[in-house]
Design brief:
The chain has about 110 residues and is an all-alpha fold. It has 4 helices and no strands. The mean pLDDT is about 85.
Length: about 110
């Protein structure tokens, strides 16, 4: 017996997930009402909770593949790097002031 794999469009999947999440009905009950296998609906609901969409296999908050950063992440990284450079510069200035004070005290004590 050959089984045919049914393909559901994104709108149907999102609607089915919305029924489960908004009504609170159990997945097997909603699946039976819609005529789809409960395991299929369960995977859509799980994927929607994890990724924000039952159609997407990629997590919504994850950076894009290949290690590339989104514009917002790139701007945040640049801001943090600039902040770190400023703090490093201030630390060097304070260390220099400390060293000068140490030398002054050493000369004054003599």
């Amino acid at each position: 017996m050959a089984s045919r794999k049914r393909i559901y469009d994104a709108e149907f999947r999102e609607g089915a997930v919305r029924i489960v999440t908004e009504t609170g009905k159990p997945i097997p009950e909603v699946a039976e009402d819609l005529g789809i296998p409960p395991g299929t609906l369960h995977s859509w609901v799980s994927r929607a909770r994890r990724n924000g969409s039952p159609s997407s296999d990629r997590p919504a908050a994850e950076p894009s593949p290949g290690g590339r950063l989104r514009e917002s992440e790139r701007a945040e990284l640049e801001r943090l790097r600039a902040e770190a450079r400023e703090k490093d510069k201030r630390i060097r200035e304070l260390e220099t002031e400390r060293d000068v004070c140490k030398r002054f005290v050493a000369l004054w004590v003599k």
